[in-house]
Amino acid sequence: MWKKHLKMFLLYKKAQGLAERTLQDYEYNIGLFFKAYPNALKDDERLEMAVLEYFSSIGHLAPATFNSRRKNLNTFFLWLKDEKGIIEQNPICHIKRRKEEKLPRASDEETLAKLLKAPDITTFAGLRDYALIVLTLDTGIRPGEAFGLLKKDFDLETGQIEIPAEVAKTRTRRILPILPQTVLAIAELIQSRHKYWPDTVPVFCTENGGKLGKNQWGRRMIEYGEKIGKKVTPYQLRHSFALLFLRNKGSAFHLQQMLGHTTMEMTEKYVYLSKSDVDEVHYTASPLNKLMPMKKE
Question: Quick one: 63 and 126 in the same domain?
């Protein structure tokens, strides 16, 4: 019984354009549960008991793994409830997410390249999303700051944007340089605006000229993440800018100015080097290389 529903659910998600990797995660995590409790869908009470027992049994897993299984089952059960009417209640509502250690995480360049191709730029919303992704990867701007920018804050001729004090999180005005690629994306977005919208409508607005919200932007990023098979968040884009900026020989001082951090300590905490970066830097920078150079055989 559950296999039939899972097969239909996966076809439904595939039709929505989800990446193969995402579909595989759904199939694996949902399958794990039903292989342990094959009769769980016979009635809601049996399903609730099975869910409680299952998550009690996997409590030893890492929070990220626990949350991944919870998320996949939650989506499946919501589909069974809302789309198919097979169950009356979603039993996952009783299961809380585990707190994950919040270390800054960047997306790899391959993921970012796929993300840039994900928005449908033939629509206003898709063009807006594309321009906002490009701007974030170019400057590391905070999402909340970007949402408040108006046309007057962009100087496309000189390639600069001003983040006014009333928009900046730190309430300190700053000027950010932008590349020609970003200038082009912003120019196309501004050109596509409704001709009757006043200049008080933010550049990154909704299709109706309303202000784009944090939750709305987060949901858009979730959709793009599912489309490319990788989790990407708005702040992950900011961190990706920071880490890649340093990898490309940018200085921590200039990064602090770009990110709008009030102290260098904040920048150092925000940007961490991956183990591969540390290994590479250590290999080239260790004083022992000069004190005790390896002999070539």
Answer: no
